[in-house]
Specification:
Length: 280
Amino acid sequence: MRLAVTEWPAERRGAPGVALVHGLASSSRIFHALARDLAPRFHVVAYDQRGHGRSDKPGSGYGFDQTTADLGRVLAATGLARPVVVGHSFGANVVLEFAVEAPERVAGIVLVDGGFGSMAERMDWATARVALAPPRLSGRPLDRLLEGARTRTPLGEFWSQDVEATMRSLFEVGPDGRARPRLARANHMRILRAMWAQPTTDLLASVAVPTLVVAARPSRPTPEEAGFYELKKQAARRIRRAGPNVRFEWMTGVHDLPLQRPSELAGRIAAFAEDAAGDR
């Protein structure tokens, strides 16, 4: 397995580390603006998870045993000793599982709009595999896909060069200009099945390292968002009763907070990471 890794060295030797793990059908490009804000004070590392971006794309091995092992190899290869590890969306599930299995390898974790609710508690697998299946995008012109994202999704409200570059990183483009997702549909479904089966609520209750949960709160919830937002509020109440290791914070914005509010999110991660580094 070859994994594509990007590093942002800190300005001083021996600075604490921060590792960034992206979500399902995303890529490490989603973190570039966030990493630029963190890099002066931290040694920052991001990578494309298996099946995604520029990393290898095997036809099997998408359970949490494999994805957490990938994270461990990235930490070892980049020399990050007990960093704060940040996961967004599905990446938060990977980070949470890693921290529970190997707490000695992290100083703390940050879960960004993911990793705090068990999917199986909300729906059975037959429902999940239909409701959460990816759209069929292969064969469409990339320019048309980008225009659709800009005009018909919440990304359009804060479209920028970073947003467009992130969207481009999700596709391979043929000579005819037509695109296909870098994450194959079959592998997407393998990851989704692993997420559905993960006992996320139990893992969060047992985490032994400092943990910050940052949940996106829509400024004006749409009917499609209302149900998920209510689940987040229930999770917030449960997490606040979980104990001293886990802290819950709201952040106004859409699910893709690393793209929409990279500087604000970086500030929260930096404050948490500095506290965690002081507790080593």
